[in-house]
Amino acid sequence: MQRKAAQDNISELAAKYPNLANHLKKKFGDSSSDLRIVSDDLLQYVCGKRAEIIESRRRLYEPPTENAKILRDIPLSGSFLFDENQIKELYTHQDNTTRSIFRYNKKPLSSHDYDNSLSNY
After folding, report:
1. First to last CA, the chain
2. CA distance 52 to 67
3. Measured torsion, CA atoms of residues 10, 16, 17, 22, in degrees rounded to the nearest 10
């Protein structure tokens, strides 16, 4: 969306100032321009951090037992930390020893913990 908006604005400026059209496209629209390179690097960084945060949240729900592998094998869903159907099936079809993996004894992260983790960067 951001890249499309930038391209639209560059095209609009190029239409108003035809003598600058080539220069604008070279500086802002070219795939090897500094803007494109920095934008791609920033997008990759943000997506990587998002993946790290999701993985750390998933680990919060994994108990330190051999049964934790069962939870690790359940993939992410589009809106939850675990696929809804698979987690439901696991919980309803497993015996009591496996159900113990759903006992949550860890304190959830607070915003204070999150702020402290950011100060390390």
Report:
1. 28
2. 22
3. 40
Q: Report the alpha-carbon distance of residue 3 to residue 10 in Å, rounded.
A: 10
The structure's pTM equals: 0.44
Distances in Å between the alpha carbon of 114 and those of 46, 48, 56, 71, 104? 16, 17, 12, 24, 20
70 vs 63: CA distance, rounded Å: 11
Q: For residue 88, give the H/E element and its range.
A: helix 84-93
Report the chain (121 residues): mean pLDDT per 10 consecutive residues.
81 86 79 84 91 86 69 81 84 61 56 56 49
Q: In angstroms, rounded to a whole number, what is the distance separating the alpha carbons of residues 117 and 115?
A: 5
